Amino acid sequence: MQKRLTINPSQLVVFVSVLFLLAIVGGCAKKPIPVPPSQPSNSNSAIKATTGNQTNINATTNQSKLETETLNATETNATSMPTNATTVIGTNATTSTNATQKETFGIKISEGRTDAPMLPIYFDFNKYNIRPDMVKRMENNAKFLLAHPNIKIQIQGNCDERGSEAYNLALGEKRAEAAKKYLVNLGVAPDRIETISFGKERPLDPRHCPAAWAKNRRDDFVIISQ
């Protein structure tokens, strides 16, 4: 004789609940887990940033090249100025240079009281003729005056302390006139030469000896205009 299976209602509820839970768990196990979308890695971002910076650098370089080409074009235009304009500028520069390089004489003494580059000449005692050893100096003085036709000079005759004042003034004048005549014979215009005698009043060497006397017997050549 078979036994009848008797199920308690409370047991039935438990059994159904268990089945329901098993069904839910089984469904969850079969459902795929969603995968989040992949995010760009930091390295990719860095690459993109570097690419962007490189693009900016290239753009800046291209802009610099464009500016350089524009500048070169401007310089080329400036270089290709009309010849007349260049000539005018060159002329002005030459004029300024010539003005700067213009020589000024009469500010430096060569010897005695004579203005460079001329040189004084010396005389024997109680004489006024040009000594042979002074000829070269006279010729060089003449060459200088002929090369500078605007210069005018004064020849100053001097004597040593021996003799009277009046005698030495006359002797000094003869010495100055002798030098003037020599220069005129070499081609210097006479109206460019003045003469004066200081006699014994302006000795170059104040000593009282033959060496000092020899220095004081002289003609000085002084520039008075140029």
How would you sum up this structure in a few lines?
The chain is an alpha+beta fold. Helix content is 53%, strand content 13%.
Question: What layout of secondary structure does this protein have?
Answer:
Layout: H1 9-30, H2 42-79, H3 83-101, E1 109-111, E2 114-115, E3 121-122, H4 135-147, E4 152-158, H5 165-185, E5 193-199, H6 210-216, E6 218-225
Parallel strand pairs: 4-5
Antiparallel strand pairs: 1-2, 3-6, 4-6
- End-to-end gap: 168 Å
CATH architecture assignment name of one domain? 2-Layer Sandwich
Please tell me the overall pLDDT. Answer: 76
Which structural class do the helices and strands define? alpha+beta
Largest sheet entry: 4 strands, mixed
Shape: rod-shaped
How do the strands of the widest beta sheet line up side by side? 3-6-4-5
Q: What is the helix/strand order? A: HHHEEEHEHEHE
Number of strands: 6
Strand content: 5-15%
Which fold name corresponds to the CATH topology of one domain? Answer: 60s Ribosomal Protein L30, Chain: A
- How much helicity do the residues have? 40-55%
Number of helices: 6
Radius of gyration: 58 Å
Looking at this structure, what is the CATH superfamily of one domain? Answer: OmpA-like domain
Stretches with pLDDT under 50, minimum 5 residues: 40-51, 73-101
Mind telling me the CATH class of one domain?
Answer: Alpha Beta
